[in-house]
What we know:
The chain has helices at about 15-25, 40-50, 60-75, 100-125, 145-165, 205-215, and strands at about 5-10, 30-35, 55, 80-85, 130-135, 170-175, 220-225, 230. It is of the alpha/beta class. It has a single domain, classed as NAD(P)-binding Rossmann-like Domain (Rossmann fold, 3-Layer(aba) Sandwich). Strands 3-2-1-4-5-6-7-8 form an eight-stranded mixed sheet, with helices on both faces. β5 (about 130-135), α5 (about 145-165) and β6 (about 170-175) form a beta-alpha-beta unit. The longest helix has 28 residues, at about 100-125. It is globular, with a radius of gyration of 16 Å. The protein binds NADP nicotinamide-adenine-dinucleotide phosphate. NADP nicotinamide-adenine-dinucleotide phosphate (NAP) binds near residues 14, 85 and 136.
Amino acid sequence: MDIDGARFLVVGGSGVLGGLISRSLVDAGARVVVTGRDPDRLAEVAAAAGTEPITLDVVDVEACAAAVGTAIERLGGLDGLVVATGVPAFGPALETEAAVAEELFAVNALGPMALLRAAAPALEESSGGVAVVLSAILADLPTNQMADYSASKAALSAWLGVVRRENRRRFRVVDVRPPHLDTGLAEHPLAGAAPKLPEPLAGSAVVDAVLEALRGEASEIVWDPKAIELVLR
Length: 233
Ligand SMILES: NC(=O)c1ccc[n+]([C@@H]2O[C@H](COP(=O)([O-])OP(=O)(O)OC[C@H]3O[C@@H](n4cnc5c(N)ncnc54)[C@H](OP(=O)(O)O)[C@@H]3O)[C@@H](O)[C@H]2O)c1
């Protein structure tokens, strides 16, 4: 994809990765609409993108579809969807409250799925439409004290894999599964407190990989523990 002039919706622009990706897209010449929940951080990123912010809680799947519609209307179509929303929770699997598990699956799986469903027709209309969705390494390596977070990300990755295969000729799907990052996500979980985590990777490495994936043909960004780097494939 040629990012210069491309039309993007970034969901979760109020977050660290979403904000950095939005800014990088704008710097590369894209037209970007951003959504988020935190009004102050969202306003800052939207101002940098020169766009009106869209406030969105991705738990509301109808609001997800409406936000996609608004972005398509404003941009006159859509070439790229980036979903960078997500929330963790920590603690033993059997002690996770049902309400916490529900919200994790709503934010980490059902919301992103609703967004991609809504964006799919516009991505198909674009020549070279791409959806980039942030999952996590935990989708491949479910981890103790993070059962529901791992399971919600695994559900998202499984769904993205099928969507990719079913829509090969319509648009591209990039599943991003990074390791622990320095964005501070683990410091504001929905429940519990993070166990000891590995040294974090810089979030900027994920942003660079996402831009590279957009420009190329990759359908996954994964962590290679032997090479100690993110790999596009
Ligand atoms: N950081 C890591 O270690 C790591 C590792 C692997 C994968 N990831 C994934 O990378 C993505 C970006 O995370 P990040 O590291 O940039 O963390 P972050 O700065 O905390 O960003 C998380 C984003 O998710 C949004 N969000 C959470 N719940 C939401 C809801 N109900 N509705 C709408 N937005 C919601 C936040 O919105 P507000 O701030 O506006 O509330 C924020 O924009 C997530 O999918 C995360 O799971 C992160």
